[in-house]
Specification:
With 472 residues, the protein is mostly beta strands. The protein folds into 2 domains: 144 residues, Galactose-binding domain-like (Jelly Rolls, Sandwich), CATH 2.60.120; 320 residues, Methylamine Dehydrogenase, Chain H (7 Propeller). It contains 1 helix and 48 strands. The radius of gyration is 25 Å and the shape is globular.
Protein backbone atom coordinates (compact mmCIF):
# COMPACT_ATOMS: atom_id res chain seq x y z
CA UNK A 1 0.00 0.00 0.00
CA UNK A 2 1.44 3.35 -1.05
CA UNK A 3 1.13 6.67 0.75
CA UNK A 4 -0.06 9.68 -1.27
CA UNK A 5 1.35 12.81 0.32
CA UNK A 6 -0.07 16.19 -0.62
CA UNK A 7 2.62 18.81 -1.22
CA UNK A 8 1.00 21.61 -3.23
CA UNK A 9 -1.87 24.03 -2.77
CA UNK A 10 -4.82 24.64 -5.07
CA UNK A 11 -3.63 23.91 -8.58
CA UNK A 12 -6.11 23.31 -11.37
CA UNK A 13 -3.89 23.71 -14.39
CA UNK A 14 -4.85 25.18 -17.75
CA UNK A 15 -5.50 21.58 -18.80
CA UNK A 16 -6.86 19.12 -16.27
CA UNK A 17 -4.56 16.43 -17.67
CA UNK A 18 -1.71 18.28 -15.92
CA UNK A 19 -3.35 18.89 -12.54
CA UNK A 20 -6.89 18.96 -11.18
CA UNK A 21 -6.24 19.65 -7.51
CA UNK A 22 -8.57 21.83 -5.49
CA UNK A 23 -7.78 22.96 -1.97
CA UNK A 24 -11.08 24.48 -0.88
CA UNK A 25 -11.35 25.91 2.63
CA UNK A 26 -8.19 24.03 3.58
CA UNK A 27 -4.69 25.46 4.05
CA UNK A 28 -1.34 23.70 4.28
CA UNK A 29 1.05 23.78 7.21
CA UNK A 30 4.64 22.62 6.75
CA UNK A 31 5.65 19.87 9.16
CA UNK A 32 9.02 19.12 10.79
CA UNK A 33 11.36 16.94 8.77
CA UNK A 34 10.65 13.87 10.92
CA UNK A 35 6.86 14.07 10.45
CA UNK A 36 5.08 11.36 8.43
CA UNK A 37 4.26 13.83 5.62
CA UNK A 38 5.74 17.21 4.55
CA UNK A 39 2.40 19.06 4.81
CA UNK A 40 -0.81 18.67 6.75
CA UNK A 41 -3.98 20.43 5.57
CA UNK A 42 -6.13 22.18 8.17
CA UNK A 43 -9.61 23.79 8.00
CA UNK A 44 -9.69 27.50 7.25
CA UNK A 45 -11.33 29.57 10.01
CA UNK A 46 -15.08 29.70 10.33
CA UNK A 47 -17.04 32.86 11.03
CA UNK A 48 -18.58 33.62 14.42
CA UNK A 49 -21.14 36.42 14.55
CA UNK A 50 -20.07 39.38 16.70
CA UNK A 51 -22.81 41.88 15.90
CA UNK A 52 -24.93 43.52 13.22
CA UNK A 53 -24.90 47.19 12.27
CA UNK A 54 -28.21 49.02 12.89
CA UNK A 55 -28.65 49.75 9.18
CA UNK A 56 -27.81 46.11 8.28
CA UNK A 57 -26.04 47.06 5.04
CA UNK A 58 -22.84 45.52 3.66
CA UNK A 59 -19.49 46.59 5.10
CA UNK A 60 -17.14 48.71 2.97
CA UNK A 61 -14.21 49.01 5.37
CA UNK A 62 -13.00 48.30 8.90
CA UNK A 63 -10.15 50.10 10.64
CA UNK A 64 -8.36 49.57 13.96
CA UNK A 65 -7.17 53.02 15.01
CA UNK A 66 -4.14 53.84 17.14
CA UNK A 67 -6.47 54.53 20.08
CA UNK A 68 -7.16 50.75 20.04
CA UNK A 69 -10.76 51.26 18.93
CA UNK A 70 -12.54 49.88 15.88
CA UNK A 71 -14.27 51.96 13.21
CA UNK A 72 -16.15 50.86 10.13
CA UNK A 73 -18.37 51.92 7.26
CA UNK A 74 -21.60 50.00 6.64
CA UNK A 75 -23.46 51.36 3.62
CA UNK A 76 -23.21 55.13 3.97
CA UNK A 77 -22.94 55.15 7.78
CA UNK A 78 -19.72 55.40 9.77
CA UNK A 79 -19.73 53.51 13.07
CA UNK A 80 -17.52 53.38 16.13
CA UNK A 81 -17.60 49.75 17.25
CA UNK A 82 -17.09 48.98 20.93
CA UNK A 83 -15.26 46.05 22.49
CA UNK A 84 -18.73 44.68 23.34
CA UNK A 85 -19.50 44.84 19.59
CA UNK A 86 -21.96 47.70 20.02
CA UNK A 87 -22.37 50.28 17.24
CA UNK A 88 -22.38 54.06 17.63
CA UNK A 89 -23.20 56.07 14.52
CA UNK A 90 -20.79 58.91 13.77
CA UNK A 91 -22.67 60.21 10.74
CA UNK A 92 -23.04 59.45 7.06
CA UNK A 93 -20.88 59.89 3.97
CA UNK A 94 -21.88 60.76 0.44
CA UNK A 95 -21.50 57.32 -1.13
CA UNK A 96 -23.11 54.01 -0.22
CA UNK A 97 -21.08 51.39 -2.12
CA UNK A 98 -17.49 50.51 -2.93
CA UNK A 99 -14.53 50.07 -0.57
CA UNK A 100 -13.34 52.94 1.63
CA UNK A 101 -9.86 53.70 2.98
CA UNK A 102 -8.87 54.96 6.44
CA UNK A 103 -5.69 55.89 8.29
CA UNK A 104 -4.91 58.04 11.33
CA UNK A 105 -2.23 60.22 12.91
CA UNK A 106 -3.09 59.31 16.54
CA UNK A 107 -5.58 62.19 16.85
CA UNK A 108 -7.62 62.10 13.62
CA UNK A 109 -8.75 59.44 11.17
CA UNK A 110 -8.85 60.46 7.52
CA UNK A 111 -11.52 58.58 5.55
CA UNK A 112 -11.90 58.59 1.75
CA UNK A 113 -14.40 56.77 -0.44
CA UNK A 114 -13.25 57.30 -4.02
CA UNK A 115 -15.29 60.47 -4.45
CA UNK A 116 -14.17 64.10 -4.25
CA UNK A 117 -15.23 64.15 -0.59
CA UNK A 118 -13.31 63.12 2.50
CA UNK A 119 -14.02 62.90 6.21
CA UNK A 120 -12.15 63.51 9.45
CA UNK A 121 -12.92 61.55 12.63
CA UNK A 122 -11.71 63.17 15.83
CA UNK A 123 -10.57 60.28 18.03
CA UNK A 124 -10.86 62.20 21.30
CA UNK A 125 -14.20 63.85 20.68
CA UNK A 126 -15.71 60.93 18.68
CA UNK A 127 -17.06 63.33 16.07
CA UNK A 128 -16.89 63.32 12.27
CA UNK A 129 -16.66 66.31 9.95
CA UNK A 130 -16.06 66.80 6.24
CA UNK A 131 -12.55 67.55 5.04
CA UNK A 132 -12.61 70.98 3.42
CA UNK A 133 -10.26 73.13 1.38
CA UNK A 134 -9.68 73.88 -2.30
CA UNK A 135 -6.52 71.74 -2.29
CA UNK A 136 -8.35 68.59 -1.17
CA UNK A 137 -9.45 66.58 -4.22
CA UNK A 138 -10.74 63.33 -2.71
CA UNK A 139 -8.97 59.99 -3.12
CA UNK A 140 -9.33 56.24 -3.44
CA UNK A 141 -6.72 55.62 -0.77
CA UNK A 142 -5.15 57.41 2.18
CA UNK A 143 -1.90 56.50 3.95
CA UNK A 144 0.00 58.09 6.81
CA UNK A 145 3.76 58.68 7.02
CA UNK A 146 5.89 60.93 9.25
CA UNK A 147 2.99 63.19 10.43
CA UNK A 148 1.52 63.56 6.89
CA UNK A 149 -1.57 62.11 5.24
CA UNK A 150 -1.01 61.09 1.62
CA UNK A 151 -3.75 60.82 -1.02
CA UNK A 152 -3.89 59.81 -4.66
CA UNK A 153 -5.65 62.28 -6.94
CA UNK A 154 -8.03 60.06 -8.95
CA UNK A 155 -7.68 60.09 -12.73
CA UNK A 156 -4.27 61.81 -12.71
CA UNK A 157 -0.59 60.90 -12.24
CA UNK A 158 -0.57 62.93 -9.03
CA UNK A 159 -0.51 62.36 -5.30
CA UNK A 160 -0.74 65.06 -2.66
CA UNK A 161 -0.09 65.57 1.03
CA UNK A 162 -1.74 67.23 3.99
CA UNK A 163 0.15 69.65 6.17
CA UNK A 164 2.07 68.13 9.07
CA UNK A 165 -0.17 66.81 11.88
CA UNK A 166 -3.21 68.29 10.19
CA UNK A 167 -5.92 67.79 7.61
CA UNK A 168 -5.31 71.17 6.02
CA UNK A 169 -3.74 71.41 2.60
CA UNK A 170 -1.32 73.54 0.60
CA UNK A 171 -2.17 73.74 -3.10
CA UNK A 172 1.54 73.38 -3.96
CA UNK A 173 2.04 70.21 -1.95
CA UNK A 174 1.59 67.67 -4.72
CA UNK A 175 3.78 65.72 -7.13
CA UNK A 176 3.47 63.66 -10.28
CA UNK A 177 4.48 60.07 -10.65
CA UNK A 178 7.53 60.90 -12.72
CA UNK A 179 9.24 57.84 -14.16
CA UNK A 180 6.54 57.02 -16.72
CA UNK A 181 3.49 58.83 -18.09
CA UNK A 182 0.77 56.46 -16.86
CA UNK A 183 -1.79 57.63 -14.32
CA UNK A 184 -1.51 56.80 -10.64
CA UNK A 185 -3.94 54.03 -9.64
CA UNK A 186 -3.28 54.01 -5.90
CA UNK A 187 -0.55 54.44 -3.32
CA UNK A 188 0.53 52.68 -0.14
CA UNK A 189 3.14 53.13 2.56
CA UNK A 190 5.34 50.20 3.58
CA UNK A 191 8.52 50.34 5.65
CA UNK A 192 8.28 54.17 5.68
CA UNK A 193 8.43 54.21 1.90
CA UNK A 194 5.70 55.37 -0.48
CA UNK A 195 4.81 53.00 -3.29
CA UNK A 196 3.11 54.78 -6.17
CA UNK A 197 1.30 52.11 -8.19
CA UNK A 198 0.43 53.31 -11.67
CA UNK A 199 -1.55 51.78 -14.48
CA UNK A 200 1.44 49.94 -15.94
CA UNK A 201 4.49 50.96 -13.87
CA UNK A 202 5.31 51.82 -10.27
CA UNK A 203 7.93 53.75 -8.33
CA UNK A 204 9.02 54.33 -4.73
CA UNK A 205 9.26 57.69 -2.97
CA UNK A 206 10.59 58.68 0.45
CA UNK A 207 10.28 61.54 2.91
CA UNK A 208 13.38 63.58 2.09
CA UNK A 209 12.41 66.42 4.46
CA UNK A 210 12.48 69.17 1.83
CA UNK A 211 10.77 72.40 2.87
CA UNK A 212 8.75 73.00 -0.31
CA UNK A 213 7.42 69.41 -0.52
CA UNK A 214 8.81 66.70 1.77
CA UNK A 215 8.75 63.79 -0.65
CA UNK A 216 10.94 62.77 -3.55
CA UNK A 217 11.45 59.74 -5.78
CA UNK A 218 14.12 57.22 -4.87
CA UNK A 219 16.80 57.33 -7.53
CA UNK A 220 17.25 54.13 -9.52
CA UNK A 221 14.06 52.45 -8.28
CA UNK A 222 11.57 51.62 -11.03
CA UNK A 223 9.11 48.72 -11.19
CA UNK A 224 7.79 47.51 -14.53
CA UNK A 225 4.43 46.53 -13.09
CA UNK A 226 1.39 48.63 -12.36
CA UNK A 227 -1.89 47.85 -10.62
CA UNK A 228 -4.97 46.27 -12.21
CA UNK A 229 -7.26 46.71 -9.18
CA UNK A 230 -6.84 49.68 -6.86
CA UNK A 231 -8.45 47.94 -3.90
CA UNK A 232 -6.42 44.75 -4.27
CA UNK A 233 -3.45 46.35 -2.48
CA UNK A 234 -2.79 45.04 1.03
CA UNK A 235 0.13 45.39 3.40
CA UNK A 236 1.79 43.12 5.94
CA UNK A 237 5.31 42.35 7.13
CA UNK A 238 6.70 45.50 5.43
CA UNK A 239 5.57 44.17 2.06
CA UNK A 240 2.75 45.00 -0.34
CA UNK A 241 0.57 42.55 -2.26
CA UNK A 242 -1.51 43.46 -5.29
CA UNK A 243 -3.03 42.35 -8.58
CA UNK A 244 -0.79 43.64 -11.34
CA UNK A 245 -0.91 44.96 -14.86
CA UNK A 246 1.94 45.98 -17.15
CA UNK A 247 2.37 47.03 -20.77
CA UNK A 248 2.06 43.42 -21.97
CA UNK A 249 -0.90 42.14 -19.96
CA UNK A 250 -2.51 41.71 -16.56
CA UNK A 251 -3.60 39.21 -13.93
CA UNK A 252 -0.36 38.37 -12.09
CA UNK A 253 -0.32 38.69 -8.29
CA UNK A 254 2.80 40.37 -6.90
CA UNK A 255 4.62 40.86 -3.63
CA UNK A 256 6.50 44.14 -3.42
CA UNK A 257 9.44 44.52 -1.02
CA UNK A 258 13.03 45.77 -1.10
CA UNK A 259 12.24 47.85 -4.21
CA UNK A 260 11.34 44.74 -6.21
CA UNK A 261 8.09 43.09 -7.27
CA UNK A 262 8.04 39.29 -7.12
CA UNK A 263 5.41 37.11 -8.77
CA UNK A 264 3.57 34.95 -6.22
CA UNK A 265 0.68 33.69 -8.34
CA UNK A 266 0.91 30.37 -10.14
CA UNK A 267 0.00 29.61 -13.73
CA UNK A 268 -3.15 27.90 -12.42
CA UNK A 269 -4.26 30.99 -10.47
CA UNK A 270 -3.43 33.26 -13.40
CA UNK A 271 -5.40 31.05 -15.78
CA UNK A 272 -8.42 31.25 -13.48
CA UNK A 273 -8.13 35.04 -13.19
CA UNK A 274 -7.89 35.40 -16.98
CA UNK A 275 -11.40 33.95 -17.32
CA UNK A 276 -13.12 36.39 -14.94
CA UNK A 277 -15.49 38.96 -16.46
CA UNK A 278 -13.74 41.72 -14.51
CA UNK A 279 -10.65 41.95 -12.31
CA UNK A 280 -10.55 45.70 -11.66
CA UNK A 281 -13.02 45.19 -8.77
CA UNK A 282 -10.69 42.86 -6.83
CA UNK A 283 -10.41 43.53 -3.09
CA UNK A 284 -7.47 42.44 -0.94
CA UNK A 285 -6.61 42.29 2.75
CA UNK A 286 -4.09 40.49 4.96
CA UNK A 287 -4.56 38.76 8.28
CA UNK A 288 -2.44 36.65 10.61
CA UNK A 289 -3.58 33.61 12.55
CA UNK A 290 -1.81 30.64 14.10
CA UNK A 291 1.60 31.70 12.85
CA UNK A 292 0.39 31.94 9.24
CA UNK A 293 0.05 35.24 7.38
CA UNK A 294 -2.54 35.26 4.60
CA UNK A 295 -3.33 37.56 1.67
CA UNK A 296 -7.03 37.30 0.79
CA UNK A 297 -7.99 38.34 -2.75
CA UNK A 298 -11.69 38.46 -3.65
CA UNK A 299 -13.19 39.08 -7.10
CA UNK A 300 -16.78 40.28 -6.45
CA UNK A 301 -18.10 40.09 -9.99
CA UNK A 302 -16.46 36.69 -10.58
CA UNK A 303 -17.78 35.56 -7.16
CA UNK A 304 -14.45 34.00 -6.23
CA UNK A 305 -12.00 34.27 -3.32
CA UNK A 306 -8.36 33.14 -3.43
CA UNK A 307 -6.03 33.09 -0.44
CA UNK A 308 -2.23 33.08 -0.50
CA UNK A 309 -0.41 31.73 2.53
CA UNK A 310 2.67 33.94 2.83
CA UNK A 311 4.15 31.47 5.32
CA UNK A 312 4.20 28.52 2.88
CA UNK A 313 3.85 30.12 -0.55
CA UNK A 314 0.73 28.03 -1.28
CA UNK A 315 -2.69 29.11 -2.50
CA UNK A 316 -6.11 27.83 -1.50
CA UNK A 317 -9.72 28.81 -2.14
CA UNK A 318 -12.24 30.27 0.26
CA UNK A 319 -15.93 29.90 -0.44
CA UNK A 320 -19.30 30.29 1.22
CA UNK A 321 -22.20 27.97 0.33
CA UNK A 322 -25.53 29.69 -0.27
CA UNK A 323 -28.96 28.23 0.48
CA UNK A 324 -29.01 26.53 -2.94
CA UNK A 325 -25.70 24.79 -2.31
CA UNK A 326 -23.86 27.05 -4.79
CA UNK A 327 -20.24 28.01 -4.10
CA UNK A 328 -19.95 31.78 -3.66
CA UNK A 329 -17.19 34.18 -2.69
CA UNK A 330 -16.42 34.36 0.99
CA UNK A 331 -18.53 36.62 3.19
CA UNK A 332 -15.52 38.71 4.28
CA UNK A 333 -15.31 42.02 2.42
CA UNK A 334 -12.86 43.82 4.73
CA UNK A 335 -10.74 43.09 7.79
CA UNK A 336 -9.23 44.64 10.90
CA UNK A 337 -7.50 43.16 13.92
CA UNK A 338 -8.94 44.78 17.04
CA UNK A 339 -9.86 43.79 20.59
CA UNK A 340 -7.69 40.70 20.13
CA UNK A 341 -9.89 39.47 17.29
CA UNK A 342 -9.60 39.13 13.51
CA UNK A 343 -12.79 40.99 12.56
CA UNK A 344 -14.31 40.84 9.07
CA UNK A 345 -17.29 42.67 7.61
CA UNK A 346 -19.94 40.93 5.52
CA UNK A 347 -20.21 42.18 1.93
CA UNK A 348 -24.00 41.81 1.85
CA UNK A 349 -25.34 42.38 5.36
CA UNK A 350 -24.39 44.46 8.40
CA UNK A 351 -22.88 41.42 10.15
CA UNK A 352 -19.36 41.52 11.49
CA UNK A 353 -17.70 38.22 12.30
CA UNK A 354 -14.68 36.85 14.09
CA UNK A 355 -12.45 34.74 11.86
CA UNK A 356 -12.18 31.90 14.35
CA UNK A 357 -10.04 28.81 13.84
CA UNK A 358 -12.18 27.03 16.46
CA UNK A 359 -15.41 27.75 14.58
CA UNK A 360 -16.29 25.15 11.99
CA UNK A 361 -19.30 26.82 10.37
CA UNK A 362 -19.98 30.07 8.53
CA UNK A 363 -22.23 31.73 11.10
CA UNK A 364 -23.98 28.40 11.57
CA UNK A 365 -23.97 27.34 7.91
CA UNK A 366 -21.85 24.36 6.75
CA UNK A 367 -18.40 24.99 5.29
CA UNK A 368 -17.59 22.87 2.26
CA UNK A 369 -14.03 21.53 2.33
CA UNK A 370 -12.49 19.79 -0.68
CA UNK A 371 -9.04 18.39 -1.35
CA UNK A 372 -8.08 16.97 -4.73
CA UNK A 373 -5.24 14.50 -5.24
CA UNK A 374 -2.60 14.27 -7.97
CA UNK A 375 -3.11 12.16 -11.08
CA UNK A 376 -2.36 8.50 -10.44
CA UNK A 377 -0.78 6.86 -13.48
CA UNK A 378 1.41 3.83 -14.06
CA UNK A 379 3.07 4.21 -17.47
CA UNK A 380 -0.29 4.18 -19.22
CA UNK A 381 -1.24 0.77 -17.81
CA UNK A 382 -4.58 -0.09 -16.28
CA UNK A 383 -4.49 -0.10 -12.50
CA UNK A 384 -6.89 -1.86 -10.11
CA UNK A 385 -7.72 0.17 -7.01
CA UNK A 386 -8.49 -2.23 -4.18
CA UNK A 387 -8.55 0.23 -1.29
CA UNK A 388 -8.30 3.94 -0.43
CA UNK A 389 -7.72 4.96 3.20
CA UNK A 390 -8.00 8.65 4.01
CA UNK A 391 -5.23 9.72 6.42
CA UNK A 392 -7.32 12.14 8.49
CA UNK A 393 -7.81 13.26 12.07
CA UNK A 394 -10.91 11.46 13.41
CA UNK A 395 -12.85 11.04 16.63
CA UNK A 396 -13.66 14.72 17.19
CA UNK A 397 -17.36 14.69 16.28
CA UNK A 398 -20.02 15.50 18.83
CA UNK A 399 -22.54 12.70 19.46
CA UNK A 400 -25.26 14.67 17.64
CA UNK A 401 -23.13 15.32 14.56
CA UNK A 402 -23.34 13.29 11.39
CA UNK A 403 -19.59 13.47 10.77
CA UNK A 404 -18.91 12.00 7.36
CA UNK A 405 -16.44 12.43 4.55
CA UNK A 406 -17.06 11.57 0.91
CA UNK A 407 -14.71 10.24 -1.74
CA UNK A 408 -15.26 10.61 -5.45
CA UNK A 409 -12.97 9.92 -8.36
CA UNK A 410 -12.52 10.59 -12.04
CA UNK A 411 -11.32 8.00 -14.52
CA UNK A 412 -11.15 10.42 -17.46
CA UNK A 413 -8.36 12.64 -16.05
CA UNK A 414 -10.68 14.96 -14.13
CA UNK A 415 -13.22 15.67 -16.92
CA UNK A 416 -16.14 13.99 -15.10
CA UNK A 417 -16.71 12.44 -11.72
CA UNK A 418 -18.51 9.43 -10.33
CA UNK A 419 -21.04 9.36 -7.52
CA UNK A 420 -19.39 10.06 -4.14
CA UNK A 421 -19.22 7.31 -1.53
CA UNK A 422 -19.44 8.07 2.18
CA UNK A 423 -17.18 7.25 5.10
CA UNK A 424 -17.36 8.06 8.79
CA UNK A 425 -15.09 10.51 10.62
CA UNK A 426 -15.73 8.57 13.83
CA UNK A 427 -17.74 9.44 16.90
CA UNK A 428 -16.28 11.33 19.84
CA UNK A 429 -13.18 9.58 21.13
CA UNK A 430 -12.94 7.08 18.27
CA UNK A 431 -9.44 8.20 17.39
CA UNK A 432 -8.51 4.99 15.58
CA UNK A 433 -11.38 5.11 13.10
CA UNK A 434 -10.09 4.04 9.69
CA UNK A 435 -11.80 5.81 6.78
CA UNK A 436 -11.67 3.03 4.20
CA UNK A 437 -13.15 2.76 0.75
CA UNK A 438 -12.99 -0.66 -0.96
CA UNK A 439 -13.13 -2.08 -4.49
CA UNK A 440 -12.78 1.12 -6.44
CA UNK A 441 -12.50 -0.26 -9.95
CA UNK A 442 -9.87 0.22 -12.61
CA UNK A 443 -8.39 3.16 -14.51
CA UNK A 444 -5.34 4.27 -16.50
CA UNK A 445 -5.36 7.81 -15.08
CA UNK A 446 -7.32 8.39 -11.90
CA UNK A 447 -7.90 11.50 -9.78
CA UNK A 448 -9.31 11.14 -6.25
CA UNK A 449 -11.07 13.90 -4.33
CA UNK A 450 -12.15 14.06 -0.67
CA UNK A 451 -14.91 16.40 0.57
CA UNK A 452 -16.62 17.06 3.88
CA UNK A 453 -18.58 19.76 5.70
CA UNK A 454 -18.94 18.29 9.18
CA UNK A 455 -18.58 21.05 11.83
CA UNK A 456 -15.70 19.31 13.60
CA UNK A 457 -11.96 19.71 13.95
CA UNK A 458 -10.18 17.81 11.19
CA UNK A 459 -6.79 17.57 9.53
CA UNK A 460 -5.68 15.76 6.38
CA UNK A 461 -2.28 14.18 5.73
CA UNK A 462 -3.19 12.52 2.45
CA UNK A 463 -4.12 8.89 1.85
CA UNK A 464 -2.96 5.32 1.54
CA UNK A 465 -3.88 3.52 -1.69
CA UNK A 466 -3.67 -0.17 -2.50
CA UNK A 467 -3.25 -0.20 -6.28
CA UNK A 468 -2.13 -3.08 -8.51
CA UNK A 469 -1.22 -3.00 -12.19
CA UNK A 470 -3.66 -5.15 -14.14
CA UNK A 471 -2.35 -8.28 -15.81
CA UNK A 472 -3.76 -7.24 -19.19
Amino acid sequence: MSRIALTSGAYQARSIIAAAQRSLNLFAEKNPTDAPVPFTYYPTPGTRLLGTSPNNVGWRGLYAATNSKLYGVSGNTVYAIGSDWSFSSMGTIGTSSGPVSMDDNATTIALVDGSTSGYAIDLAASTMTAITGDAFYGADHVSYIDTYFLFNKPGTPQFYSSDSNSLTFDSLWFANKVAYSDHLVTLAVAHREIWLLGQTTSEVWIDAGAAQFPFQAMQGVFIDYGCAAKYSVAKTDNALFWLARDKTGQGIVLRGASYEATRISTHAIENAISKYPSISDAIGFCYQQGGHVFYVLTFPRADQTWVYDISTGQWHEWCWIDSNGIERRHRANCHAFCYGTNVVGDWESGNIYALDSNAFTDNGAPIKRVRGFPHMVEDGKRVMYRQFIADMQVGTALPTNDATVSLRWSDDRGASWGTPVQGSLGATGEYLTSIQFQRLGMARDRVFELAWSAPVSTALNGAFVDARVAAT
